[in-house]
Automatic annotation (TrEMBL):
InterPro entries: FlgD/Vpr_Ig-like. Keywords: Signal. This is FlgD/Vpr Ig-like domain-containing protein. One of its GO terms (cellular component) is plasma membrane of growing cell tip. Residues 1-29 form the signal peptide. The keyword Nuclease does not apply. Residues 400-465 form the FlgD/Vpr Ig-like domain. The keyword DNA-binding does not apply.
Amino acid sequence: MYANARSRVIRFTAALVVLCIQLSPTVSGAEAGSDWWGGFAPPSSGGQGLDGPVRALLDTGGILIAGGEFTNAGGISANHVAEWNGSSWEPFGSGTDGTVTSLLSFGGGVVAAGEFSLAGGVGASNVAFWDGAAWSALGGGVNGVVEALASFQGLLIAGGRFTEAGGVSAPYLAAWDGAEWFDLGAGLNGWVFALSTYGDALAVGGWFTSSNGGGIRITSWDGSTWSAPFGPVNGPIWGLTRWPLGSPDALVSTGFFEISGGAATNSIAAWNGSDWYPVGGGMNGLANCAASHFGRLFAGGSFDLADGLPAAGVALWTGDGWEGLGTGIDGHVRALTSHQSSLYVGGDFTEAGGMPSSYIARWDGQVPSDVPDGPDRGPDRWAEDGSPRLLAVPNPVRGGESVEFRLQLPGDGGERHVRLAVFDVHGRQVAAVLDRPMSVGTHRIRWDGSSDDGAVLPSGSYFARLEVAGQVTTTKVERLGAPVQKR
């Protein structure tokens, strides 16, 4: 069933894991007047909801699998793991005797991991394998909670809050080759919460501040060597998600941090293959997870503002900024996934869009079909609507960092006279950034944060104003103090 891959490199099939995974259930339409579906009401009221929080979601070819803290799904007994066939839930045998935090398609079946000692009545220490009919243990398992799973080079990778795997020392990260567990030599000094393949490597994120490759909160393994291409992050990473926007894909990190590799980021950041970039102004609280739906990026967590705007628990990145999904979720989002025309949400909540939705929800809102801007694509793909466009990156900006203004100048050719200036909250111009003819198209202009007299502007809110051929657009820029280093 498994191939021994410790001594050979196998071309891997990328599998996105941690708390957010791409899924695919099919269910009936949304309730009239709402983008949120009303069918996941509590099982006690006859709905198809669950009786406890969802921690993980997985699609296995049209069937949705949910894992978490529940024991009842849609009125049937389902101990911590169940599958949704589009109209009702079905159990995975007798399930597990404790919480399932992570799910992964692997070896022709499904691996479930979390905090449990039995799976289907069989002894299984925090990780188990479902072959479609029965549960089995994976060796001696691990001695603590598993938070994330991934498949890499034919190996099953587990990360979490354990120190041993199969009876051998394996601090916070271990690999299973089909016969035994072994340590990967990461040298981590703290918990692992997130795993994702990226390019030819495995990205590992979490709470750690030291590793053999030098990574802080995030590190990378190519199958033989640990390295730190990403740069340090100043707070814990809870999720890693690939965002397919080109070659290479972006790698999106979610968590509770403010700085990623020197860039100002608020709980969410995107890696473009060489640098970290903020995704708008980010969130005002923990971002647990992210997922791609119709090419758009969605994020979920324990926040109520995104880009300073209302976004209860879940938000959509439009390419220009974050938007909430109606009235959102009344609790914490721990998992997101996409299937066909719907976005699925799991977590610790009882309402979605103001309707009863017991720990799982479905959003059927319309998503624009154009491809949004990625972390380093600026306005290159902004819609040609005849108006100038303006984006500031990073935003907010810290200390003495520079801001890059990304401009789209409309027209069929030639030049336009462009004026770009920065104003304070009283409407006074503090910096003239640009005042000259420029060709139609997209441009990037850096501003070092200084005023017209050369002084560095203090922290606060400012407004950048772009004027092109009589048309005006503005964007808000937040200047913050020096970075706050989290421990």
